[in-house]
Write a structure and sequence with these properties.
Length: 177
Amino acid sequence: MDNVTIEKLKKLVRNVPDFPAKGVQFKDLTTLLKNGEALNVVADALVELYRGKGVTKVVGIESRGFIAGAILASRLGAGFVPARKPGKLPAKTIARTYEKEYGTDTIEIHEDAIGPDDVVVIHDDLLATGGTMHAAYELVKSLHPAKVYINFICGLSFLDGRKELPADVEVKTLFDF
Ligand code: AMP
């Protein structure tokens, strides 16, 4: 994407101060997603990143990672795998619990969702501290896929969430704040 396009997309993201807690600058992507032209630009740009890499599964993190994650999977001709909050998936799952600013959180995937032949993109809408994606990465890795990529629509560079994620994994965002 060229810089003009990136700036256009960034302008469509609504900043909501003090949500969900005081001091947080929440990046609301719904204002970008509701714009049909922008949604298509995002979809095209995501596909461009992974075309030709043999991706077989896109793992989307509940719930905002389901939106563009499912679009990316469909456009690549790959399958979609939801990583969900505890107790939501009906069959046998594996889980990972991780530290949040206050307390802990857990995510789960079906244990048969990924196999050794899979090339996986794990997708979420936004990279903040990286804690959620790190847990998702560990979960996916425990199923021994052939290759794992990590992807976000956008990142908050001042939080440096990249350092939470393994240095040898390719991590891509479309744009950063
Ligand atoms: P983290 O584990 O800190 O990287 O947080 C990642 C998850 O929290 C992502 O799924 C984001 O959707 C959400 N999130 C965290 N901080 C923000 C923020 N400032 N604006 C929008 N979403 C956020």
